[in-house]
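Quick question: what would this complex look like in 3D?
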Amino acid sequence: MPKRKEIKKVLVIGSGPIIIGQAAEFDYSGSQACRSLMEEGIEVILINSNPATIMTDKETADKIYIEPLTLEFVKKVIFKEKPDGILATLGGQTGLNIATQLVDDGILDKFDIELLGTSPDSIKRAEDRELFRKTMLDINENIPQSIIINNINDGMKFIKKLGFPIIIRPAYTLGGTGSGIAENMDEFINICSKGLQLSMINQVLLEQCVSGWKEIEYEVMRDGNDNCITICNMENFDPVGVHTGDSIVIAPSQTLSDKEYQMLRTASIKIIRNLKIKGGCNIQFALHPKSFNYVVIEVNPRLSRSSALASKATGYPIARVAAKIAIGYSLDEIKNSVTQSTSAFFEPALDYVVTKVPRWPFDKFVSANKQLGTQMKSTGEVMAIGRTFEESLLKAIDSLDIKLTYQLGLSLFENKSADELSVFIKKPTNDRIFAICKALQKGVTVKEIVSLTGIDEFFIFKLSKIVELASEIQNTGIAWLDYNIYSRAKKMGFGDSYISNLVNVDLNEIRALKSKYPIKPVYKIVDTCAGEFEAKTPYYYSTYEEDDDDIKITGTKKILVIGSGPIRIGQGIEFDYCSVNCVKKLKELGFESIIINNNPETVSTDFDTSDKLYFEPLTKECILDIITKEKPMGIIVQFGGQTAINLAYDLKNEGVNILGTSIENIDLSENRERFLNLLSDLKIPLPLGKTAFSLDEAINIASEIGYPVLVRPSYVLGGRAMEIINNDKTLVEYMKLAVDISTKHPILIDKYINGKEIEVDGICDGNNVLIPGIMEHIERAGIHSGDSFAVYPPQKLSNNLKNIIVDYSIKIAQALNVIGLFNIQFVIDNKDRIYVLEVNPRASRTVPILSKITGIPMVNIATQLIMGKTLKDLNYQLGLAKESKFIAVKAPVFSFSKITDLDTYLGPEMKSTGEVMGVDKDYNKALYKAFISAGYSIPTSGNILISLSDFDKKYSISMVKTLINLNFSVLATTNTYKYLLNNNIDNVELISYDNALELLKDNKLVLIINTPRKGKNNQTFGYSLRRISVEYNINCITSIDTANAFINTIKNTQNIKNLDVYPLNNYNINYLMQN
Amino acid sequence: MKAVLVIEDGSYYTGEAFGAFGEAFGEIVFNTSMTGYQEITTDPSYNGQMVVMTYPLIGNYGFNNDDNESYKTHIQGFIVKEFCDHASNWRINQKNEEYFKFKNIVGIKNIDTRKLTQELRKNGTMFGVISTKTGNTKTLLESLKKEKEKKRNLVMEVTTKVPINHLGKGKKIVLIDFGTKYNIPRILENLSCNLSILPAYSNYKEILKYNPDGIVLSNGPGNPEDLPDIIETIKRLLGEKPILGICLGHQLLGLALGGKTYKLKFGHHGSNHPVKDLQTNKCYITSQNHNYALSNEIDSSVEITHINLNDSTIEGFKHKNLKVLSIQYHPEASPGPTDSGYIFNEFLSIL
Ligand SMILES: Nc1ncnc2c1ncn2[C@@H]1O[C@H](COP(=O)(O)OP(=O)(O)O)[C@@H](O)[C@H]1O
Ligand SMILES: Nc1ncnc2c1ncn2[C@@H]1O[C@H](COP(=O)(O)OP(=O)(O)O)[C@@H](O)[C@H]1O
Ligand SMILES: [Mg+2]
Ligand SMILES: [Mg+2]
């Protein structure tokens, strides 16, 4: 079946902001699909609210709409564009839900637009629990016994029959939101009522619990001609009960015999045939560990996290092929882009082992509940490739970029006894694997651990081998660390840093061994065919074996770009956006571009993004090994976030040529003392601040500069452990906590300045500076820049202040001799005094946003400057670029529903997982779009609860008046109520804490405005209020400034009925000098 | 214990020994299946060959009583990256190491199997020797050369010595055993055929004595052109009875119909070979294991029905006026995908 000629214009639906359960993988699949369609000469229209994506880059599609992913706005785009078809199966659950809404809405029939790929009917049959159950039974595939209920009582009977444990799962949610396993009636009622709330069609499924079975996934594809293949299967290290997104996953399956493998493969193909999926889908099975019994857990009739992983694990470009299938091709007609010769109808054969390990946010959310279950909690993941399981696992753990104690069998859990550990590992947690290894070290047997955890003996035994060798290395120490043991360690996958920690010597001493013996890694190709055909893919991994594959090491005109690793809070997809754009430019400039990264979700690890891809841990060792092999001219670190910057210091010391801003100057900006001196030389003010090395010192400093103060350990990313503190008491508490967070570093204490926060991103060639734009935060300083709404161009900033800010920025960039990108945060106090908060001599979170709204390709320019050009050469106007006629509002997006028991109030510690952008010619409209994109629903009537900290009360008066004028009934808690009364606002209703919570649970509140009193405490009313509002999915705003903005938006909603949507291409104006 | 693999081109790989002690000779082929090593070691088609598994972890799920494809192992030697020393699966009933000792297979592990595979891809299948006795590559190379000269009748070595009957209520099928995998009779029995398995060299009369509704020519080892007598027998059977040829059986059928066979550079050995059915335009992932193929110049009485999507070699044909079906791949799977099982029903339906 050849390509369908009648399809000329296709609308691709993106997946929106990064949230837990829906991360960069859809930027990867989406942009790959767009390319796949464009190369077929199809006009591609894209809608996605997430500006940090590569997807929303000019080149990715013919027209790009950064607009809210809601039925209303997607329809607007459809009206405007009248596409022939819509491709929604690449936009994750968001895309799929939009598709379903579009179908039900009837607009598709109206304009006869076809939903390409998997049909609406198929989607329904896979997604709707009841239909799915029926379908599976029809083709006699087993699924866990279950019933659908719309109210709790119906559940009771079923439970009588099946008993506990029982699993509860809402229909139409993603990442398992709201699902959970109930051991008893209370848990059941609790989980179930929330589940009914969260489900789009308030329907939940009660299901037989098959925890402890093997969890196996298959990635399956089918074309319109009913040809089916499985791309690969994957085995979860953790048995069923831990969400696959939170499980260590191995590809291919390790403990399945061919009979089991084929049994599930045959089932997969039977299922995809019956569901008539067109494209890719993911099928999850629970396989009984001691029989051939299995049940189908879930079918995702779309591309997924797993399909991205499968693509990277096998080299098979699933999204690309799925897109071609959607426009009519059959698999045998599509070329295999790896061999270039064979067809896409084949099943990859691996000759290596792939291990994926999730990356959890618990290093930031120290207090959050770390137990894992059916609901996903990780923000990102790493993948590693090795020729043995041990090697791939150890490489993956090295890729996590977390504390070194997190190396198997090292200090972590040392203080726990074997018995304590045996108890601990019963329940799955983020660090269970480390506890297991420690337990093995302390003599708990493999069999015991198997029975405690339900993890397959195969894996535990492998761990025991790692632990054995680790202990052996510990004992030999550096003195006896001879060739024999060192080479065994390398072959098993031990990184040099791991070894150096085991024998506790400096890393360099181990590196010395490597060249002394010498032992060097070889690089093998990921070729989809286990060497059976000659592969063209420049996709490599290291291992310790006899021979390299024939990797062409050509020329010297090449640059190594360091990626940013797993997605985590504070270091998201924006850095992948930057790395990818850097590589694009390098190619255009005629350099060979080499990327090293370890995040399987990203575009940067797509094998045709760079000229060469090394899928490796981002460690000093791995990078140096690659440099030794490739001998690049230099490496670029400023696009890889803090991960790359931190590596740069070590690499520099090894004589690596770091391109762009020099390490000395990066240090100048990061090293507290040096930075203070620099700014005082420049006569640029900083908030008063001192460094404390002891508690007493801290208290003295605090009283000296005066409360409130902002305290934090030095060298942090994402504002970890940063807090605003009002008195000695909380300061003491903090010190206790913070100091054991990082003993190496002293505590920094700054005057907290309660003012407007401003963010500047600039590009500098070492002396001239271009500032594409300034962003003005809606929330006052004190809320992390990543968590605050921000507006471009500034709406409330006088030209005078702008000029000073620009002047400061230029001075700083020049002083730091920045070559490339830099980011500066300022705060302006109520006397219009401007202070510098922070300078980041690297790409920042806001780079993609400014690049897109202004049309100034920041990374593209920066890359050219790094490679020696000047801004003048590129003919750009200097200083602050003229403002675009479009206004952009960036809004943060959180994943609080996934991190149960995390307090949701905002502060200097970053909590958001993603962001969206609202764009319009009018500020209020842009703001409105931002709120909508961020998932706020704008109420028009109903109860609004207000409970404010003393500090914020004074800002609330006009706000409350507005609400009352808009006929909302305003409820306030005691003190807030009193305060309002004293300011003669009397038509506010007083409400007790208990009643407030009741109303909330009865879904009788449309909005909650609750600003916490500083100094958090999980027992307070505020905490319960904030948490419950999350669980019941009701807007709860915790910053008075956000609240004001939101209420203005409510007020304006009437006037801004007729909203228009604008393609990215319209934003831009010309910045080149007119000459 | 040390072991070495010496190849006829003089190259060698040093690794560690597992399984039986001694020396093993044979043609080295690589197999890309990620599971199914037990089926592979017991597949009679491998008689005379040593197999290198491209998947690096072998033995993970051990060995059991149910997954054998014949009464004994037929591979001469086994070459792997890692041989699992702690298998885990509920059906295991023998330790990996013991199994190989017991089956008397010489194995070599911890060598760079990807490198070896790529050598075989570039230079084609080669003859080799695994030794756990000596690391003297010179002497091993000489004995290898001698061994290679030896003429063996590989089919004779593996075929059943006496007829075996599986009574069934269904169609009467004669399966001629050139080294059949168990799964072919298994499937025919499940289709309730009345089955007789005959020795490879049964002649025309002996075969027709059973008055079968159809004849199945099984898979088996080696070069079809080494079996002229059998080809003659098949020529006579053509037209007498419906015939289904599988793998070696398919090649023999092709020759009997006046076709030619040739040796592939490194053969097809794996569970992921894409085949297109030219009659329906449908594609299937098939399990394959063969070093020889039917060449395109075949008799005009024959219609090509299946081709391989990787190298467009012939994967199946049927006769234009006789009831003759023939396929190069393994509809009985084991190891590999079961997608082509329908072939058996198709054959039975024309009887
Ligand atoms: N019946 C069940 N018993 C026990 N655990 C289950 C059951 N069904 C699902 N799970 C666990 O919950 C996780 C999430 O369920 P899934 O259906 O995949 O939801 P999601 O849409 O979030 O992927 C699965 O990965 C599995 O580990
Ligand atoms: N002296 C200060 N006064 C007021 N707010 C501050 C001060 N220092 C930091 N902040 C707030 O804390 C946030 C995080 O601080 P920052 O230095 O940017 O850490 P990070 O490295 O995580 O970006 C800032 O965005 C700002 O809102
Ligand atoms: Mg799932
Ligand atoms: Mg900052």
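Answer marked as accepted. The pocket of magnesium ion (ligand 4) is lined by residues A 785, 825, 838 (CB under 6 Å).
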